Amino acid sequence: MADFVPPTVGVSPAISPMPRTLDEARALARGRFKTRLETGEKVGECACHDETETVDARGAPGETVAGVRFRDSGRLYYFGAAGLRLEVGDWVVVETSRGREAGRVVIAPHQIALNRLQGEPKPILRRLGDDDVRRMEELKREAPAAIRAFRETLQRRRLPLKPISAEYGFDGSSLLLSYAPHERERVPDAAVRDVSRELADRLGCRVELRQVGPRDEARLLGGLGRCGRTLCCSSWLPVYPEISMNMAKTQDLPLNPSKVSGVCGRLLCCLSYENEQYRQMKAVMPRLGQTIETPAGPGFVVSMQILKELVTVRLTASNTDAVFASTELGLGGRAPAPSPDPAPVAAPLATAPVAVLAPSVVPDAGVVAFAEGTEPATADAPPAGPGAADEGTRRRRRRRGRRPEA
Description:
Strand order of the largest sheet: 2-1-4-3-5
Low-confidence stretches: 5-15, 47-60, 335-389
Strand content: 15-25%
Number of helices: 10
Distance between the termini: 60 Å
Structural class: alpha+beta
Number of domains: 4
Mean pLDDT: 75
Radius of gyration: 31 Å
Shape: flat
Helix content: 25-40%
Order of helices and strands: HEEEEEHHEEHEHHHHEEEEHH
């Protein structure tokens, strides 16, 4: 088996105007890639589109390989397919570290340079016929009976193991049984070997027992996630991403492990899907409680919607909340869609104040009236009444009185 190593692709000079945001750059790149595929142009430095013989950096000829995916794995492996006529969806027999196994072709045979593969690809032995495929379907229907036999053996021997799945080989000569220990209890290896020998005599084939972790257990059993969709690991996710609690903190999710954990009891894999976007957007978005200047006057940030690039600001003049796009605040977000009748500049809201939780540290009146690096907005500031200063002082004292002790 050989894992695929993506080539280093150079970026051609852009003909369109320079993108202002990362999302704009990605959209332009996707458009260029789609256009090149439709017109048959060369994509990067690869030679996948070329039907001639491929050579690597040392001048050695390339090899015809096919992408194969196994039933118990979402990863893609490349095997040599020289001299074989294969199509996507065909079942083939390949040699692996666990012996001969059956896999399905998901990428048709094509020429590829050897320097893009890790190691020497093993050859595909043969293509499975219709009789072999029917035999595999029959063995798949016998898998529940093997799990029941495994469970009965464990109960009779009183071993704290939980059967997970059973998978026969393509010819029925081997059986792979996956199990998980109960509450991390230690089981002697000798007891596991005895169970394997007993099941081999009972089922008439070679039996291999494999212990799996919580993530693999969820992948093999399947299920629905918190979103109501099929688990990513059991449907399309090839490799488990690296997850940390900092990703939940970056996305402003609750830091309670029970709120951000999946059915396997581990942190959700989907925390890594949008983490990079949140990290990049938070680098340009303001912080909660930060004093900023808006088209409606100065104020401080009370909430944000990172993906929509919206900022809710409590205006100092009217003590009301207003929502602004990041581009209106000059934060370098996505450009708003052009409208035929541009809306006027947002003014302070005249409605009643919206009940929004104030930040833990409330800026003083003198600080709120200024934005960093700007002059006081005296032209748009409303005239102060005779009791405005006393009212502001009383309001600040009440807020300071509710501040928790350090």
